[in-house]
Specification:
Blueprint (H helix, E strand, L loop, with lengths): L10 H10 L6 E10 L15 H16 L4 H8 L15 E2 L5 H8 L10 E2 L3 E11 L3 H16 L7
Antiparallel strand pairs: 1-2, 1-4, 3-4
Helix pairs in contact: 1-5
Length: 161
């Protein structure tokens, strides 16, 4: 059934969508340290290319430092290859679980607040992800987001999609 912006979505459909993946509507505040596996141009900071092995070795070493009590924000400022977030101590914008990249879903969902993930491979290198805050969704708090998501899923796709 194709929906338009004005079509009503039944409460039972909203509830079913939420119950199928309640974590998708949780809100996460994350920080990360990014270790590039190769030079990526102006968006990253490494001055020389780093092999896959070198990137993973560095990410593991940083994780050991964090586990031993190193300050995450300071380490992000001095070692992260993400030029946009490094000056912010690795802070990322808040995100709903629904919008997490597939490769990060498991890592983020298993973290406790304040905990840092093991090195997690992304498309361009390794991430150490710290869960700063998590706000668990309820059907009441997520209703609008669930409905918007359902409307977006119902839109016709162009042949280029």
């Amino acid at each position: 059934m194709e929906r338009t912006d004005s079509a009503a979505i039944a409460e039972s459909e909203i509830r079913s969508q939420f119950e199928a993946q309640p974590w998708a509507y949780d809100e996460y505040r994350l920080s990360h340290i990014f270790i590039a596996a190769q030079t990526m141009g102006s968006k990253t900071r490494p001055k020389t290319p780093r092999s896959e092995s070198q990137a993973l070795t560095l990410a593991r070493m940083l994780k050991r430092k964090l586990d031993a009590g190193a300050d995450f924000a300071n380490l992000a400022r001095t070692t992260s290859d993400d030029a946009a977030t490094a000056p912010l101590g690795g802070a990322l914008s808040s995100i709903f679980g629904l919008y997490l990249a597939d490769e990060f879903v498991v890592a983020v969902r298993t973290l406790a607040v304040g905990e840092v993930s093991k090195p997690t491979r992304g498309p361009h290198g390794y991430h150490l992800i710290k869960l700063e805050e998590k706000h668990a969704a309820t059907l009441e708090t997520a209703r609008v987001l669930v409905e918007l998501h359902m409307r977006g899923e119902a839109l016709p796709r162009s042949p280029a999609d």
